[in-house]
Amino acid sequence: MPLTATQREHLAARLQEERTRALDALQRVHDEQARGSERDRAGDLTEMPFHMADLGTDTMDAELDASNETRMSRELAEIDAALDRLYRTPDRYGICEDTGAEIPLARLEMIPWARTCAAAREEA
């Protein structure tokens, strides 16, 4: 059974909530990066680490931040694409791109930008 107008409105609101959450998270990352140098963020007193492991930890933290920023950017792009689908072709929103079956409402409630009815494909 296709989504009702009320369900689509609810999911549009969920997508907007998730979009706001993702934008806020990205903004926090950018604000942290703009606040100071790596030394300041790590709380170090000098540019020279006391131990080589400190340098490795700083590098790992920077890579983790970059990875999280990339993930959040991709999620934001998926949310924007879902909003576009919902507004341009509301009758196709909630239809699995792989099988053409309806995506369960419970799945859309949790992941309103879902494009498929199975989580395995999106994790790949």
Question: Notable features of this structure?
Answer:
mainly alpha; Four Helix Bundle (Hemerythrin (Met), subunit A); 124 residues; 5 helices
Description:
By secondary structure, the chain is mostly helical. The protein has helices at residues 5-35, 38-42, 52-88, 105-110, 119-123. The radius of gyration is 20 Å and the shape is elongated.
Quick rundown:
With 124 residues, the protein is mainly α. It has five helices and no strands. The protein is elongated and about 65 Å long.
CATH architecture: Up-down Bundle
SS-based class: mainly alpha
- What are the secondary-structure elements, in order, as H or E? HHHHH
Straight-line N-to-C gap: 28 Å
> Which CATH class?
Mainly Alpha
In the residues, how many domains can be counted? 1
Helix content: 55-70%
| Overall geometry | elongated
H/I helix tally: 5
Radius of gyration: 20 Å
Low-confidence stretches: none
